[in-house]
Design goal:
rod-shaped
C-alpha cells in the first residue's frame, strides 16, 4: 500500500497512531488523580478531534475513488452498448466456432 497508494497509506498510518494515542490517554485518565484528569481529558479531546479529521479525509478519499470507479464503469457500459452487435457476433463465433464451407 505504501508504494501503490501513498495517500491512503499515510492516512491509515496516522489513523492507527491516533487510535493508539487515544487508548493510551484514556488509560492514563482512568489511572490519574483528580488533579491530573482535566489536563489528560483536554489532551484526549485534541487527539479525538484530530482523529475525527483524519477519518473524514479517509472517507472522502474513499468516496473519490468510488466515484472514479463508477465513472469508468459507466464509460465501459456505454462503450459495450455501442459495440453490442460486434460483441454478440464475436461471442456467437466463440460458442459455435467459425463458419467455413470447407468440410471433408
Amino acid at each position: 500500500m505504501k508504494i501503490h497508494d501513498p495517500d491512503l497509506f499515510k492516512l491509515v498510518t496516522v489513523d492507527m497512531e491516533l487510535e493508539r494515542q487515544s487508548h493510551d490517554a484514556a488509560h492514563r485518565y482512568r489511572d490519574a488523580s483528580k488533579d491530573e484528569r482535566a489536563e489528560i481529558k483536554a489532551k484526549l479531546a485534541e487527539i479525538v478531534n484530530e482523529h475525527f479529521g483524519v477519518r473524514q479525509k479517509l472517507r472522502s478519499l474513499e468516496v473519490k475513488r468510488l466515484e472514479e470507479n463508477l465513472k469508468e464503469l459507466r464509460e465501459k457500459i456505454e462503450q459495450r452498448a455501442k459495440n453490442q452487435k460486434s460483441l454478440v457476433e464475436k461471442r456467437l463465433t466463440e460458442l459455435l466456432g467459425p463458419e467455413d464451407d470447407e468440410h471433408f
